[in-house]
Amino acid sequence: xxxxxxxxxxxxxxxxxxxxxxxxxxxxxxxxxxxxxxxxxxxxxxxxxxxxxxxxxxxxxxxxxxxxxxxxxxxxxxxxxxxxxxxxxxxxxxxxxxxxxxxxxxxxxxxxxxxxxxxxxxxxxxxxxxxxxxxxxxxxxxxxxxxxxxxxxxxxxxxxxxxxxxxxxxxxxxxxxxxxxxxxxxxxxxxxxxxxxxxxxxxxxxxxxxxxxxxxxxxxxxxxxxxxxxxxxxxxxxxxxxxxxxxxxxxxxxxxxxxxxxxxxxxxxxxxxxxxxxxxxxxxxxxxxxxxxxxxxxxxxxxxxxxxxxxxxxxxxxxxxx
Length: 322
What we know:
There is one protein chain. The chain is an alpha/beta fold. The chain is built from 11 helices and 10 strands. Strands 1, 2, 3, 4, 5, 6, 7, 8, 9 and 10 form a 10-stranded mixed beta sheet that branches. Helix 6 links the parallel strand 5 and strand 6. It is globular, with a radius of gyration of 21 Å.
């Protein structure tokens, strides 16, 4: 009888602790440098989660190794809901990119729900002689072996898009990896590199200001944003079947109590309905998630599908990191 009473007391204490969650600030780890597109999504979402959870949201940038350092940190963190991960498509591509991944994508995390999908844009330095995709193709063909393609590092969204772009046009370029999107964009603006394929969350303002040249969006349909509405898709410009978007999702360490996972999922769903967040995302060409991938199980199922989709393409390119 005493054991039953003791067990009941423990269960009651645990339930009370869950009911009080969160009673201290929550850290959201972004596995990329500050100033990049994933960082912006995290900071905008953090404001909305703060309102929903009535608690401070701290954004911690843990860049390096294509996002795997930050993801590994969260995988090893206490499973109490106070350390979370906000990651993009790299969550699904890292298993193919890295031979020795320090975590298991499907087994070491609790899936909290997807946030958005972000189209990509192919952009170039302002001094490129090409002004549309047809002219760019001719320029590429006449400058083979001389073209520099920037990205934010192995496994970054810009790396993945650039990889598929090179495969689609059957032209190898000199890829120049940076430690984050911000330094890559800085060198593109300065003319030190020629091209980059990156998320609209990072390129829209540069396109609108005329600081870079835009050659196409990577979605099947044109985007309905002030900066990009007139920009053709790469598919309609001749790259048939070229359709790439980058998505973001949230994760907690494996073993996080279900009550905490449910509360975080509920807060995420509410945050994504915030008109201000939707407005900010739409201004950048991002589409806020509204379908069943907001659910934890559906989110995990989608990531597994993406792992199976990207794995063969990455392996075929032979690009790995130790």
